[in-house]
Structures are given as C-alpha cells and as structure tokens.
Design goal:
By secondary structure, the protein is an alpha/beta fold. The chain has helices at 39-49, 69-86, 95-98, 137-140, 144-148, 163-169, 188-197, and strands at 2-7, 12-19, 22-30, 59-63, 89-93, 106-114, 117-124, 127-136, 150-153, 171-172.
Length: 199
C-alpha cells in the first residue's frame, strides 16, 4: 500500500510518501504565503525520487484545514485535481491532527488564528478528546484537558507526522467534486459583509 499525503495549512509544507504505513520519503518547506507555487512540484519530486508515477499510488490523504485560507484551498484544489485525473482514492483529515499525528501523549494541537484566537484540537494518537474548533486561547487554557496535554503550536519547529494515524483517521471522500476546505470560521470580508447586511 503506497500512500501520498500533504498539508499546506501553515507555514510548513509537508509532502510525504509512505509504504505500508512507514514513511519512506518526504519533502518539507518553510514559507509564509507562497506554497501554491511549489506544492505540485514537490509532489512530483517525491514521486520521481522513488521512481513512482501517480498511477502507482493507492491512496492520497490531504490536510484540508483549518489554517491558512490560501493554503487549505490549494490543498483541496490539488487533491481534487490529482484524484480526478488519476482516479485515486482520496481521504481528508484535519490539518491539526495531520501535523501532530506523530506525538505519543495527549497533545493540544494549535494553529494561530490571530487576535488571541487559535484553531485547536486535543487528541491522543488520533483519538479526539476535544474536537477541533476556533477558540479564544485564554478560554482554552482554562480547560483541565488543556492543562494535562502537551501543547504544540504548529510551526517550522513543532510538528510530527505519523502516516499510520493518517490512514486510520482519514475520512474517505465519496464525492470529490463537492469537497470544500475545512475553514472553521468565516473570512473577515464575510464577517464585515454580515455586519453591514444586519446594520
């Protein structure tokens, strides 16, 4: 079983290739806003290094958010395009779980959502203890579950990926065409428009 997986929801671009749940190759890139230019190329590099074509991949797993609006849109578009063109099985998984799937203890996965808010989830080896949400960090820090967990703010120094967890917890996509990113919150523009329409 060969699995290709990637996530670009944060400043970390992670592209991995696993065989029978063992990570055999990966490409990691740190950047702030330009993952779109490099994702497809990095996927091709990983496949080429391992003398594989997309047709030889058994399934693809993508982190589809929450996180950077641009990043998760890119992940979903590329995932849908490759899955459709090559008739690949596609699974999605929370980016919070994707990027912290390799931690052994209870882990509180966090992505900075600015202005004192975070995207957050608490899990133990992929078993969700606190579902993902858009929360005020100060409120989260008062929860007993948070206090007992290892805090991981996902960035270029803090992430750990386990392909076995991704395969076990990934959700199969039945209708590729209707797949949308997991935003967890509306955009600032949408919020402003909502305020205007109700004023």
């Amino acid at each position: 079983m060969r699995t290709l997986f990637f996530d670009v929801s944060t400043n970390v671009m992670f592209v991995g290739l696993a065989k029978d749940d063992i990570l055999i190759d990966s490409s990691i890139r740190f950047a702030s806003r330009d993952h779109a230019k490099y994702l497809v190329d990095r996927i091709q590099q990983v496949l080429k290094r391992n003398r594989l074509k997309l047709e030889q991949i058994d399934e693809m797993i993508i982190g589809y958010g929450p996180g950077s609006y641009t990043g998760i849109r890119i992940a979903v578009v590329v995932g849908k395009m490759l899955a459709h063109q090559k008739n690949l099985k596609l699974k999605v998984i929370s980016s919070l779980l994707f990027m912290t799937s390799g931690y052994e203890k209870d882990v509180c996965a966090l992505i900075d959502a600015r202005r004192g808010y975070v995207f957050s989830m608490i899990h133990q080896k992929g078993d969700v203890l606190l579902s993902e949400g858009y929360r005020k960090l100060s409120d989260l820090q008062e929860l007993p579950l948070y206090l007992k967990s290892q805090t991981v703010f996902i960035d270029d120094r803090s992430y750990l990926v386990n392909p076995k967890i991704l395969r076990e917890k990934g959700i199969p996509v039945q209708d590729i065409h209707n797949l949308v990113p997991n935003y967890l919150r509306i955009t600032e523009a949408e919020a402003n428009e909502h305020q205007i329409s109700h004023s």
